[in-house]
Amino acid sequence: MKARHVAAVLAVAAAASPAAAWEAQTTHAGLAEQAAAASRLHTRLRSLGFARGLYEPLTVPPADAPELVKALRRLDPAGGYVPDTRGRQYALSWLTAGAVLADAPFAHHHFFDPATGAGWTFDAGGLGGRLEAALLARLGRTRPPDRGTAAPDWVVAKNNPMGLDGFLDQYAKAIRARTPGERGRHMAGALLAAGAIVHVLADMGSPSHVRSDSAAHFDPVGPGRDDLGSRFERVTALAWGRLGVPAPSTKVSRPRLRAFFTSPDGTGLADVTSKRWFSAHTLPAPVQITGAGGRTQLAIELARPQPAPPARLNLMAASQDQGATLHDAAGMCLARYRVDHGVLTWSLDDECLLEQAGAILPEVAGFATGLLDFLFRGELAVTRQGNEVRVAAASAVGAGQLEILGEDGSGVRTAAAASASPGGAAGSELGRAAVPAGSRRVIALFHGVDAAGEPLVAVGTLDLP
């Protein structure tokens, strides 16, 4: 899509408030769906007893979660993530709903600058902050929070209702709960939290989120005076929508949750995005290139060491009306630059933004896919030896609590044994118990940590003759 086409669409687009992230009901929903399709989640759900996998209907009775249902019903029901009047929708829809809901009211916790370790920062005393505050006051809006929790910390924060703790709690209950209806309700909760965690990670693929560029989220993106947000994210939403979001380029695996966001070797999504791309207000500063005696001198002032323009720029081409383009090693547009009356300036037009989004989205989807597999990674091996069942670790685990349950022909589960487990290497026994009387299936649930000390829920099942 050419820049003029995007501009035409922007001219008729309408939005109620500044966009704080990839737009939730389009880009985030599409990224969550692409990640789910490329991950092992469908197979995992089936192995846990949800026979239709991603297409298993799961019900959260409205009376059990009235605020959640109210929030979901404010969304467009045509989106496929609003449950019916019974509170019922597919497993995939609950995951997508979590990705859509994650922003409100927590969008300021979805920023992280790997260069400083800081999250969202709104400097009300600085020039940018004063301008943004004045703009919001003119629009009758409250000022955004001064600070936000850094994104990698937010997903594990105790006060995050849709963070890792909530996911692990609901996931364990989805295995332990007595009846199929209860288990379905808790699995919907686990998927909501997983979708929200995926959302926070996906925001690390948006350059302004990882370069301390709060100003980018107050740019005009449409004709209305209050149609503000990130132009990069709006252009992405208009060009790809939800169904057009591309599949992952490759699935990313990491041993720790935080490493998906950032790591010392610079391979986290925030690290990669921050170093590779400019954001709207972290482009090189304008610079006078003609010095005394008409000599050309070029001292580019960068907000960050990377990305960095080469020592030699095509200033002759940049002096023409169309300007010149800065490309990266892969030939991707990083920015436009132009020389006018001896001043070198930088910009990002819609066509350049589209080119960047086309490269970023598959990468983000790959990280999101790996994160889903990481969350649901825990597996146990359950075997029968005479009148006992033996539970072993499929991969190395640390200390935790092991529960063994029996499930009868009507799907009702009953606790058969519970014990502390010191953990062990792959294949090592974690516990054993007598085969529960009347059981058609045995389920083992481990809630503890993996070999790297990361929180883990691991599950194994065995169908009995």
Question: Which key terms come to mind for this protein?
Answer:
single chain, 465 residues, alpha+beta, Immunoglobulin-like, 3 domains, seven-stranded mixed β-sheet, four-stranded antiparallel β-sheet, 14 helices, 15 strands, 34% helix, 19% strand, disordered N terminus
Quick synopsis:
By secondary structure, the protein is of the alpha+beta class.
Textual characterization of the structure:
About 45% of the residues are buried. This protein is an alpha+beta fold and about 475 residues long. A hairpin with a 7-residue loop joins β3 and β4 (about 230). It is built from 14 helices and 15 strands. The model is unreliable at about 1-20 (pLDDT under 50). It folds into three domains: about 5-275 and about 365-375, no CATH class; about 285-345, no CATH class; about 380-465, Immunoglobulin-like (Sandwich). It has a seven-stranded mixed beta sheet. Strands 5-8-7-6 form a four-stranded antiparallel beta sheet.
Question: Into which percentage range does the β-strand content fall?
Answer: 15-25%
Mean pLDDT: 91
Count of the domains: 3
Oligomer: single chain
Low-confidence stretches: 1-19
How many angstroms separate the termini?
58 Å
Structural class: alpha+beta
Overall number of strands: 15
* Rounded radius of gyration (Å): 25 Å
The helix-strand sequence is HHHEHEHHHHHEEHHHEHEEEHEEEEEEE
Which sheet architecture does the biggest sheet show?
7 strands, mixed
Task: Give the number of helices.
Answer: 14
General shape: elongated
Helicity level, as a percent range?
25-40%
Largest sheet: spatial strand order: 12-11-14-15-9-10-13
